[in-house]
Known about the structure:
A hairpin with a 4-residue loop joins strand 11 (101-104) and strand 12 (109-112). 14% of the residues lie in helices and 36% in strands. It has 212 residues and is mostly beta strands. The chain has a two-stranded antiparallel sheet. It is rod-shaped and about 130 Å long. It holds the Pfam family TSP1_spondin. Belongs to the R-spondin family. Its main location: secreted.
Amino acid sequence: xxxxxxxxxxxxxxxxxxxxxxxxxxxxxxxxxxxxxxxxxxxxxxxxxxxxxxxxxxxxxxxxxxxxxxxxxxxxxxxxxxxxxxxxxxxxxxxxxxxxxxxxxxxxxxxxxxxxxxxxxxxxxxxxxxxxxxxxxxxxxxxxxxxxxxxxxxxxxxxxxxxxxxxxxxxxxxxxxxxxxxxxxxxxxxxxxxxxxxxxxxxxxxxxxxxx
Length: 212
C-alpha cells in the first residue's frame, strides 16, 4: 500500500499510514528512521551507514554500531570501516595507531610496525676513542629491533642516539694535559722573534761603526 507520494510501505508485511512499516518481508531489514520528532519504519535490503544487519527468527533489524567513529560494522562491537580520518584496528577506530603498529594509508588500517626493545644504559663518555684528555665528549645508547615491520616501506624508530657529556677525567694518567697549540701561531711568533733579533743586531753594528 502507498500513502501519499512516497511508497513508505514498500517491502512491508504490515504498514501504518503514520508509522510506516511495522513488519518487513523475509530477508529485508527493519530500520526505524527518525526525522525530528517523527519516526517511521522502513524495510531495506541493506542497513545505512552506522548500522549493521541483525538477523533474528522474529524479524531482521538494523542495529546501531556501538563503536565510536565507525561508519559500518560487522556486529555491534566490531567495526569494518571507520569514518574518514580514522584508522581501523581490530574492530575499533583510532585517530592514530596504537604503540607497535603503523598506519597503512591506502587502506586506512593499522598494521604491525617495527618493534624495538628497551634502551641500553648510556655508554662511556669519550672523544676520539679516548676517555680522558678532553673536557667534553659524547656518550651513546642503543636498542635492538625485536620485530621487523609487516611492510618494508614502514620505517623503524631510531636504534642509536648520542648526547654531549662531561668527561670524568680531564687529564690522562701519566701525562699532563695541555691545550693543543695552533701551528700557525707558533710559526708566526717564532718569525717575529727572529725579525726583532736581526733588527737589534743591525742597530748594534751601525752604532759600533759610528764610534770608530
